[in-house]
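FORM 7B - TANDEM STRUCTURE REPORT

SECTION 1: FIRST PROTEIN
SEQUENCE AND TOKENS:
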Amino acid sequence: MPNAKPARRTGTTRALRRSPCPVACTLDILGDRWTLLVVRDLLLGRTRFRDFTASPEGIPTNILSDRLERLVRHRIIARVPAQDGTRRFGYQLTDKGKALMPLMKAIRDWGLAWERQTKVMLSP
């Protein structure tokens, strides 16, 4: 893995990263209650904003917009033209995003093994 210096926000001295710890840096990007659910939906084949809002967790649209933008900014997902030919766009995982698949599988497997009444989510 490349060792990059902590990124800084333009116009402020506040670092985007709390520390160089890879766990902390990953949590800074993915460690809220919604972001990994968006990644999960992408892995399940969902690509459009409306697909994400239809998920059972009911992510608020303002939060969804923010999380999609964060994932694009960190190059975990990319905006792509909609497959239906409309002027709208969809999202797809980048190679960096696809590399989250083993992590997502481990989280799913842990939940299935240790949390009662969980089940595997199926693609739409």
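SECTION 2: SECOND PROTEIN
SEQUENCE AND TOKENS:
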Amino acid sequence: MSDEKELGTAGSSFEDYLAAQGTLEETTTQAVKRVLAHQLVVAMKEQKISKVEMARRLHTSRSQLDRLLDPRNDSVTLGTLSRAAQVVGRSLNVELR
């Protein structure tokens, strides 16, 4: 019996598993984008801002807004996310840990 921790055994974390698979960074990026997209949609609903109106306020097209709100699309810039946050009265906070 070995003292080394095996992946998938009790005590190992999901982050450890993703790191071992080499997908931790990609998975984290996707999760962050999904949360941000969800928060924008919720804020829009709370303020009764339609997609057409949101696109108008962002000075962009409806299809661009759809890409911004698509939780699977992680190619959105920080500038776009920041502008969208301002439109719904929020701010975007980014930090390095």
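SECTION 3: OBSERVATIONS ON SECOND PROTEIN
The chain is about 60% helix and 0% strand.
Residues 33-97 form a domain with the 434 Repressor (Amino-terminal Domain) fold (CATH 1.10.260.40).

SECTION 4: SIGNATURE
Preparer initials: ____
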